[in-house]
Structures are given as C-alpha cells and as structure tokens.
Amino acid sequence: MSRVIDVQGLSVRLGGRLVLRDATLHVGHGELVGLIGPNGAGKTTLLRAALGLLAPAAGRVTIDGRPARPGRAPIGYVPQRHEFAWEFPLSVEHVVMTGRTGALGVLRRPGVEDWRAVDDALERVRIGGLRERPVGQLSGGQRQRVLVARALALQPAALLLDEPFTGLDMPTQDLLSDLFAALAHEGRAVLMTTHDLAAALYTCDRLALLNETVIATGTPTALTADPGAWMRTFGVSERSPLLRMLRAAA
Amino acid sequence: MSPAEFVTDLLNPDLAFLPKALLIAVMSSIVCGVIGCYVVLRGMAFIGDAVAHAVFPGLAVAFVLSGSLVLGGTVAGVVTAILVAVFAQNRRVREDTIIGVFFVAAFALGIVIISRAPGYAGSLQQFLFGSITGIPDRDLYTVAGAGVAILGVLGALHKELVTVSLDRETARAMGLPVFWLDLALYVLVTLAVVISVQTIGNILVLALLVTPAATARLLTDRLGLMMVLAPLIGGLGALAGLYVSWSWDYPTGGTIVLVLTAGFLAAWLLAPRQGRVRAVTRRWTRGARPG
Known about the structure:
The structure holds 2 protein chains of 2 kinds.
Chain A: E1 3-14, E2 17-28, E3 32-36, H1 43-50, E4 58-63, E5 66-67, E6 75-78, H2 92-97, H3 101-104, H4 112-124, H5 140-152, E7 158-162, H6 170-185, E8 189-193, H7 197-203, E9 206-211, E10 213-218, H8 220-224, H9 227-234, H10 241-249
Parallel strand pairs in A: 3-8, 3-9, 6-7, 7-8
Antiparallel strand pairs in A: 1-2, 1-4, 4-5, 9-10
Chain B: H1 3-11, H2 17-41, H3 45-54, H4 56-64, H5 69-87, H6 95-115, H7 120-129, H8 137-166, H9 168-173, H10 178-200, H11 205-219, H12 223-248, H13 252-270, H14 276-288
Helix pairs in contact in B: 2-8, 2-10, 2-11, 2-12, 3-5, 3-6, 3-10, 3-11, 4-5, 4-6, 5-6, 5-10, 7-10, 8-10, 10-11, 11-12, 11-13, 12-13
C-alpha cells in the first residue's frame, strides 16, 4: 500500500519542550488509522506537523512523497469543534465553500466546479438538506459533519481528524465512525486522533499508540492482545479499567 | 427644525460646510459599517478601540505641522498595529494586554504632541469629539477615494478574511497568510477610523465601527445581508444624527452615536427572530396554549 502520510523519526519542540520524540508512522491510501494516547501525548502536535504548521526539530513528514508544507498538498483538516466560530452568520454551504479558499487563490470567485465540489461534499456527509441553514443553528453531530464536508470540498487525498467524537452522543458517534471508515475505503488516507477507544477499536484499520513517541502500531486485534503497549502508553496498571475493557474486546 | 428646513440649510451657499460634513459623515459611516462587520464578528471591538486611539499621535503631528491628517493618522495607526502584531508574538503577555499598553501610550503621545500647539485646548476638543466645520474640499475627495479603496480591498480579500475568521488553524493549513491578512484588516480599520475622525471624533469613532454592524447582526443570520444592512444603518444614522444635531445644536459626533445606539436598542427589542419582544410573545403564547 503506497504511503500518503509518512512520518519518519519526527521530533518537535514547542516552547523549548520536546513534545514529540523520534515518532514514526505512516498512513496509506484507503487506510483509517487511529492515533491514541493520553492528554499531552503529542497527538495534535503530530497532526499539525503533518499539515506543515510545525517545523520538525528532527526527522521529516512527507505527504505524497513531498515535505509537508501548508497549502502544498490537498489535505483535508478537521479541527476540534470548539476551534470554529459557529456564531458567524454563514450558511452550511458557504462554510463548506471556505474549504476551497486556499485552492481558489486571491481575487478568484467560486465557479461551477467549486460549487459542484461543495455539493458532492455535502451529499457525501449527508447534510445536503441543511445547506441553507445557518451553522449556528446546527446540533453537535451536524456541526461535525459540516467540518468534514469543508475538508472534503478540497477533494483531498488525505484527511486529518482531531478528536471528532468529543462531546457527541453514541448514535452520532456511530454515524461518524461509519462515515470515516467509508471515506477511507474510497481511497483516502485518514488519520484520526481520539480518546474514544471503543470507536477506534471497531472502526480503524490500524491504531498507533502515542505518548511522546509512537509506542506501538498494529491492527486493533493485534494491539488488544498486547496490554504492555497500552500500559506503557497510558502509564496504567494491569488492574485498570482500560486493560479490563481491552481484555473484553479481545 | 423640520426636515424641509434642514434640506434648505444643506442647499444654502452660506452654510457650505454642512453638506460637506453630511457627505463625509455618511461616507465614513458606510465604510465603517462594512468593515465593522469583520470587527464585530471577529470580536475585535477592543482592537478597533485601540486603533481609534492609536491614530491620535499621527493626527496631532499632522495638525502641529499643518500636514495631511489622513496621512498622519494612517501612519500612526499602522505603526501601532505592527508594534502590537510583533509584540504579541511573545506568548508570555496576552495580545489584549499588549494592545492596552500601546493604545494608551499612543494616545498619551498624541496629547503631549498637541499640547505644544497654540490653541491646544480647542484643537484637542475638536479631535476628541469631532467637528462639522472647517472641512476642506480636498478632504471630501480623500475620504471618497480612501472609502472606495477600503471597500475594494475588502471585496478582494473577503473570502480569505472570512476563512481566517472562522478558524485560524485550518486557514493556516490551507496556506493562507494569516498574519498578513490580520495586518491588512488592522490597516483597513485604521484607514476607516482616520476618515471618520473629523466629524465624529476620536473617542466616539468606535461606535461607527461596532454599533451598525452589531445592529445588523441582530437582524440577520446571513453575512451578505449583514454587510448590506450595516452600512445602510450607519449611513442613515449619520444622516439622522446630523439632522438632530443641527436642529437642536447638539454635538454632532455624540448625536450620531446616540441615534445609532437607539437603532441598536430598537433592533434588540424588535428584531423579527431574535428580538426580546418576539421572545416574550413566543413564551407567552406557548404558556397560554392548553395541554
């Protein structure tokens, strides 16, 4: 499987502190990879490095074989929902169109092709019926789908999702899990950070356990059979509820 | 004074300053109304206030040297905006604190500079609270030209400014130059402030940026409509304010701001969807419904 996102020996310093150390990870076409680790493990930092927003202190990140740089490769980025200004008076379709701003360039207005890409993205996440609704009036799950549609409007080869399940109820999480799996299996490389272990275990093709560095990667089945990797990642004992849940899942 | 008498005064050649003041007030209100939409939606009211104060030393220098007020104000505002942007890179002190430090310093510098000019008290009052007399003809063209330029640049950068306003991290990931777009917006706000200062004054100019846009926001959930309503409200507010001010001999800047504030309160009470009256009526109707 060809590598779309390729992280090799990546170290990143933030404010003088080493947040990521010698992390290695790759995501291929058609793969959904879950990035799992405790708070402060460096999950979002790794996503930001993949977007080219953080310069590596060591190692490298390539997207489709080229060094990661903002705006260079079509990567769809879905930030955490609280980072978005939902009170802005824009309709769903106009928010989704902003996903194409970088590609459009200054002084160019959206054309037929751009609106077609927006239509496709809205249909893909099944919110075509909400296209004229102000985004401020949407529920949490609908908002998450708007952010995914905005990322898809760029027609990206790779999708980076930052904590997409936070604050959502179970039915919405299920719906989004299915959507992310389908988006990956259509050929995109999808990398998702999450604290939701159940969703990650049952949805992702592979998991990467991260705490400052990538401690282990593998299929959910392989990793549930390796409690030591989880104990090193989360610093928990064998008696922790996390390990009991993993044993039940296995 | 009736509206007809006001129109007669506007056409009276002996009162040539009056139509000039009206034109400048309406033009600057329209420009401030449009750019104010970004100020309100991005939560930049404090920055708008800072820029309004920051132009003061430039105005004072231009006044003392008998130079161009627009140029002096713009240079001072832009220099302060750049200083804030640069100093705000240091994460130990928050951006709003940096703004607080620089705008008060800029304003203090303006006061010191203008105190060196003869007739200092009168000039200070004119800058702080605005004046409708003594506007030279060339200022009309300067304000019109600057207004068209501001609106043109805003139109050209609209989708980039909206994208950055929605979510800065994603905008950066797209390759948008977020720092330069922020700076461009600060410069445009500075220019809008400078062209408005003469009639409305340094202290009250923030109202032109914020109040019409805030009123428009209460009336609509559509950005496009908000950007039409805000300049319309600003322009009408300037016209009505000047009329009231001329009729009852009130200070022009203060009267325009009070008219705009009355419009905001009316929208807060009576807005078709979000207004308080509608909310109370809805609650009352629900409460009265049986079962």
